[in-house]
Recover the amino acids of this structure.
């Protein structure tokens, strides 16, 4: 595999090269690090939009509508859909979720589903890598969509340049509680399915909650993805945010870029540590649990023992370069 | 601090000692490891029941009803409520959620709220420690209740001896998707709010889904926590499971104990690794992100650099012993 050549094909936006590159980094294959190094000079153009919110609010449909609109404006769009994983099988639960619009024939759109870590788990560890690859492939906008039932919703905030929170009218009291969390992370709030009763109440409610979070002044917009209402206004708002991001390597723009890079570094490091830990878990934990059962070790001591020898095991990927 | 004395007070079920001990292990205070060692011989009696399910299904009310019923049977009950944490402030979002019944004057009940890691994050890392302390304090049943919107729901499966999934009639299509995940983890399924329309449909639905998961034959029960209907039948089912757990150090009972111990070891190890990683994150990541911004490092290389020097930093808690 020639990473230089793959990087060159990426830079031309070759979709097959993108797919190949993503598979490579997801599997931590030989050359993955080299590829990520080779694409370095071409990075920094893509605007990463995190899309999150409770289940059932129509995030995927909205992402499809946004994609249509971005395409009309001549922009290239990458979509990364983070799906929860079954705790037992490790497989993606929503891997087959149906996208309303078929973009598969459009060379300007690249869609990738990724399994999160664990059921309702955090971002797939490789998401930082994938964002970089899509950036290198000259995507203008990369939407990272989470299913809104887990850690991924928080983690996406760390890597995104801006976050769009999708809500809908009539969400219950429990969601109200998570909404307090969501109020902290959004740059743009969308009340989707705005043709349903109570949409205005939800907007008023959101504006009131926004007032409690000083220093943030989010946009709150009513949209109906199904009826295609309000989408252009939303894209206009998002495009203003992207323009600021592109215009400025200084001040707020610089801060946003730096925050995203920090998020990508910590996500990558975290993934590496957890993968390493899981790698040694199976047989060793079994033996340690037996020791705990026999009262020869405490759980605390067993955890320590499990973490010993960490140094010897780490760096498998590094050697593969 | 005399850990031996604290352990002795714990063994008598002294609630103030329990509170003190939990604070100690949560803060990784000096003597925490010693305390966990000292209580070792007294462990193994408590039955750990994970309680999970989507938001709004009335888990807390049901846990309250179960507590009442267990108390009538003369059993001591520990409740660990895992609350989601704000991604920005780190504070618990639902810390003030109202429990329907006030057990605070009852010496046979101990309730502790713990913040999860990150908003909708996994179990608080110290949950394995807290379970052990409540076990040492002679609790017969420990209910670990998660809010049903995150990683904690999966993680609780790993440490619990049995898992009760709480659902309700009329859950939407998106919850349907998470239900597929929930079908894998439950030993007992409760359709709470069974006085609402559609309860029987939900039961039929659950039984049909259960059939798809061979090898598991979960109980499906209709309950109304609010109307106190069906609670005694549910406790009867749970008590049968607990009896099997208590009776047997062999076969299935042994397997369940071993699985829980394995879960507690990996949770503890995971917490230690992540705490360690976070500890070095702030200043070092800032500097590394600047390097990435200047294209001197890739994200990949920055993550590696962040993980270097790990060995030197680890083991702070160990030294404190």
């Amino acid at each position: 595999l020639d990473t230089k050549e793959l990087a060159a094909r990426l830079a031309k936006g070759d979709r097959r090269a993108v797919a190949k590159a993503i598979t490579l980094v997801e599997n931590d294959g030989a050359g993955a690090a080299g590829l990520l190094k080779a694409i370095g000079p071409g990075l920094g153009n893509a605007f990463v939009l995190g899309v999150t919110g409770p289940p059932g609010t129509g995030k995927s449909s909205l992402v499809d509508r946004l994609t249509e609109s971005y395409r009309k404006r001549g922009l290239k769009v990458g979509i990364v859909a983070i799906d929860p994983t079954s705790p037992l099988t490790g497989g993606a639960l929503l891997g087959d979720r149906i996208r309303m619009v078929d973009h598969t024939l459009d060379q300007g759109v690249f869609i990738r589903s990724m399994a999160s870590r664990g059921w309702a788990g955090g971002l797939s560890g490789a998401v930082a890598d994938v964002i970089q690859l899509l950036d290198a492939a000259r995507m203008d906008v990369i939407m990272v969509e989470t299913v809104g039932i887990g850690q991924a919703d928080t983690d996406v905030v760390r890597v995104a340049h801006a976050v769009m929170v999708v809500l809908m009218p009539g969400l219950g009291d429990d969601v109200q509680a998570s909404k307090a969390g969501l109020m902290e992370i959004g740059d743009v709030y969308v009340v989707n399915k705005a043709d349903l009763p109570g949409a205005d109440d939800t907007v008023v409610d959101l504006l009131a909650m926004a007032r409690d979070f000083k220093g943030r002044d989010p946009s709150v917009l009513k949209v109906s993805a199904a009826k295609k209402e309000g989408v252009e206004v939303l894209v206009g708002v998002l495009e203003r945010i992207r323009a600021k991001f592109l215009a400025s390597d200084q001040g707020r723009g610089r801060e946003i870029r730096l925050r995203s890079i920090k998020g990508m570094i910590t996500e990558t490091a975290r993934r590496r540590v957890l993968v390493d830990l899981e790698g040694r878990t199976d047989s060793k934990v079994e033996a340690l649990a037996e020791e705990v059962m026999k009262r020869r070790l405490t759980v605390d001591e067993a955890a320590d023992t499990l973490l010993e020898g960490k140094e010897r095991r780490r760096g498998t990927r590094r050697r593969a370069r």
Notes: Residues 13 and 137 of chain A are 4 Å apart (CA to CA). The beta strands of chain A are 47-52, 77-83, 109-115, 141-146, 162-167, 188-191, 219-222. Chain A touches chain B through 79 residues (CB under 8 Å).
